[in-house]
């Protein structure tokens, strides 16, 4: 009886979370010009619009450019930060860690205003570099969380062994630490890319008309001329995010499996 | 001429806690020395200082006449075997063993040949393409040992390498390591908290307590004539006897044990009449039944008898004086409550300092 309740409640929550997504997706294939039900007939015209109309196409390309840039920047900086905080050589590591994770909790509006003022001073407002930097600030915490967890899983005596066998510190890092941490680095990069992909608020503040990302374009198209292209764009974003999420889950599964297998077994 | 490995008044403190206190230790080439002690006695810290993972707070460490305590681990040429093996999980067995040779820039063809030969030595050549995670604990231990041996380091350091293995495998590996030590003439420093492991494997044992060496000697001397109370109790089992020295003549001390009992013991230096001292008497040195000529004989009562399969442990009392004896078997008419004569040689009763 209680178990049945549990299951029912679980299913209800899942439906609640997924319903909005399922509600919008069929509208990507409507033949009508309005973003509402009922759907008179199915058609590919809005998918076509999404891939041919200039504003939409450039916004997709922009998203990919800025997303890749932010991912590379955040992954490199986040990995370096995790390595630095790991050895315990730095004072006040826990304070530093909290600081690095702050962009996750600070309201994006606050960050956006500050970032705009800052980037204008540097002459980077409304440039690709500026938007990339702004996005990477948001992405770095995800990389740090993921890479730190991976580094924590490495037994320090493995690195000590490498060192005692004649490997100088750089070689220990290249041959032992990095290969063992790479699943964490990759899954951090995936989260970074996904974060950049759906970022709107910061983009509103720091991007000029030339750097409109897909998410930003959806936001304005809802306000200006609402039509089912938004639904088509949403479908594209969801498929992209699902692929990235699937990749991250696969990596995590492999990491867990190899962690289980490296635990020394008796006999 | 300095000994091969020398610790010269080495101290190590973590914050305000002193873990190793003014240690002097000399190890000769080809020796198998065990560092034995309870956890927290500083033995692992000493090994880590020798390997280069910790720096002494004070003092100097020499290897082959050269001072090494300022050198990083990768310049010390020591093979370290860790308790959890510390194999590289992302490399195959052969790659693991090849790693130290690659670090020494040995030519590729020679690496392959030496890896092959090393794996052959531990009879694990057929596993060379496996990952460490696909091996059993004993096999992983052998690979870790092979990896530490393959680059012919001057010293092998082992940090409780057999702790994670079950009893049977552990005893097997003890023999295997001992055999390798003899065959290859290795210098081995072996950290353990298992006294029987130290007794069976070592040329010499250093017993540690609270950052100091209590006694360093060959296993038999450590066992037969422990110098301190700590060593007597930590290694094997013993009867600790507090006794008053009645008189000393000709290196024989006459003791009064209390409860009207008296015995003779071999007296060390500095024992004088009237003083109270502690003595150690191993349970297996006590005989029950007729006392041979020249031995101590005490009239005791059997208080309890515990069966251990290959031996019996017999609790003996006389008023408030009690002893534990260990014997192979009891004669049939000795039951609990029976009177018996317990005898031991004066030389088996050793005086302990402090």
UniProtKB/TrEMBL annotation, chain A:
Primary residence: membrane
Residue ranges annotated for the ABC transmembrane type-1 domain, each copy included: 60-248
Annotated compartments: Cell inner membrane; Cell membrane
Matching Pfam families: BPD_transp_1
Keywords, comma-separated and alphabetical: Cell inner membrane, Cell membrane, Membrane, Transmembrane, Transmembrane helix, Transport
Protein origin, superkingdom: Bacteria
Protein name, UniProt field: ABC transporter permease
TrEMBL record, chain B:
Any GO CC annotation of this UniProt entry: ATP-binding cassette (ABC) transporter complex
A Pfam family that the UniProt record links to this protein: ABC_tran
TM ranges: none
UniProt catalytic activity: ATP + H2O + polyamine-[polyamine-binding protein]Side 1 = ADP + phosphate + polyamineSide 2 + [polyamine-binding protein]Side 1
Keywords of this entry: ATP-binding, Cell membrane, Membrane, Nucleotide-binding, Translocase, Transport
CDD domains noted in UniProt: ABC_PotA_N
Coiled coil: none
Domain ABC transporter: from-to ranges: 5-235
Keyword NADP assigned: no
Single GO MF descriptor: ATP binding
PROSITE patterns: ABC_TRANSPORTER_2
EC code: 7.6.2.11
Family, per entry: Belongs to the ABC transporter superfamily. Spermidine/putrescine importer (TC 3.A.1.11.1) family.
Subunit composition and interactions: The complex is composed of two ATP-binding proteins (PotA), two transmembrane proteins (PotB and PotC) and a solute-binding protein (PotD).
NCBIfam families with a match to the protein in the record: potA
Function: Part of the ABC transporter complex PotABCD involved in spermidine/putrescine import. Responsible for energy coupling to the transport system.
Stated name of the protein: Spermidine/putrescine import ATP-binding protein PotA
Protein's organism: Microvirga aerilata
Record gene name: potA
């Amino acid at each position: 009886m209680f178990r049945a309740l549990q299951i029912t409640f679980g299913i209800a929550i899942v439906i609640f979370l997924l319903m909005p997504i399922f509600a919008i997706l069929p509208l990507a294939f409507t033949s009508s010009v309005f973003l509402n039900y009922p759907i008179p007939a199915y058609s590919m015209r809005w998918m076509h619009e999404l891939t041919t109309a200039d504003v939409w196409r450039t916004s997709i390309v922009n998203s990919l450019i800025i997303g890749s840039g932010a991912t590379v920047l955040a992954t490199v900086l986040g990995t370096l930060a995790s390595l630095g905080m790991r050895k315990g050589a730095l004072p006040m590591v826990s304070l530093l860690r909290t600081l690095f994770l702050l962009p996750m909790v600070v309201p994006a509006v606050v960050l956006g205003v500050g970032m705009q003022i800052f980037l204008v001073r540097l002459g980077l407002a409304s440039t690709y570099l500026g938007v990339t930097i702004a996005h990477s600030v948001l992405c770095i915490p995800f990389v740090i969380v993921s890479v730190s967890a991976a580094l924590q899983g490495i037994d320090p005596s493995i690195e000590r062994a490498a060192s005692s066998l004649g490997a100088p510190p750089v070689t220990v890092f290249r041959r032992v630490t990095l290969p063992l941490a790479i699943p964490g680095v990759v899954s951090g990069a995936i989260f970074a890319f996904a974060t950049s992909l759906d970022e709107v608020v910061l983009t509103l503040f720091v991007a000029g008309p030339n750097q409109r990302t897909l998410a930003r374009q959806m936001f304005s198209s809802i306000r200006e001329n609402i039509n089912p292209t938004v639904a088509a764009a949403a479908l594209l974003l969801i498929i992209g995010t699902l692929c990235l999420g699937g990749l991250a889950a696969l990596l995590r599964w492999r990491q867990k499996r190899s962690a289980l297998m490296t635990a020394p077994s008796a006999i | 001429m300095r000994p091969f490995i020398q610790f010269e008044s080495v101290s190590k403190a973590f914050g305000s806690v002193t873990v190793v206190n003014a240690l002097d230790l000399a190890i000769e080439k080809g020796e198998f020395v065990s560092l034995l002690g309870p956890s927290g006695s500083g033995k692992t810290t000493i090994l880590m200082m020798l390997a280069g993972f910790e720096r002494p707070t004070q003092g100097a460490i020499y290897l082959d006449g050269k001072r090494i305590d300022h050198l990083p681990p990768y310049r010390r040429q020591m093979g370290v075997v860790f308790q959890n093996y510390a194999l590289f999980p992302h490399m195959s067995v052969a790659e693991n063993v090849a790693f130290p040779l690659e670090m020494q820039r040995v030519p590729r063809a020679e690496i392959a040949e030496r890896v092959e030969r090393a794996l052959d030595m531990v009879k694990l050549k057929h596993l060379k393409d496996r990952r460490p995670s696909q091996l059993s604990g004993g096999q992983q231990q052998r690979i870790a040992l092979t990896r530490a041996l393959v680059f012919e380091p001057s010293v092998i350091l082992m940090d409780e390498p057999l702790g994670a293995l079950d009893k049977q495998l552990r005893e097997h590996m003890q023999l295997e390591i001992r055999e390798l030590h003899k065959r290859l003439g290795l210098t081995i420093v072996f950290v353990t908290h298992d006294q029987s492991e130290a007794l069976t494997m070592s040329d010499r044992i250093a017993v540690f307590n609270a950052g100091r060496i209590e006694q360093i000697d060959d296993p038999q001397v450590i066992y037969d004539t422990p110098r301190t109370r700590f060593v007597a109790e930590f290694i094997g089992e013993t009867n600790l006897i507090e006794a008053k020295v009645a008189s000393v003549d000709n290196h024989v001390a006459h003791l009064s044990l209390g409860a009207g009992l008296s015995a003779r013991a071999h007296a060390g230096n500095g024992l004088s009449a009237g003083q109270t001292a502690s003595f150690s008497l191993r349970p297996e040195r006590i005989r029950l039944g007729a006392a041979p000529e020249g031995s101590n004989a005490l009239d005791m009562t059997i208080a309890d008898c515990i069966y251990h399969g290959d031996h019996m442990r017999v609790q003996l009392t006389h008023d408030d004086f009690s002893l534990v004896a260990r014997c192979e078997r009891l004669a049939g008419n000795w039951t609990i409550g029976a009177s018996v004569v317990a005898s031991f040689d004066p030389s088996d009763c050793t005086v302990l300092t402090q």
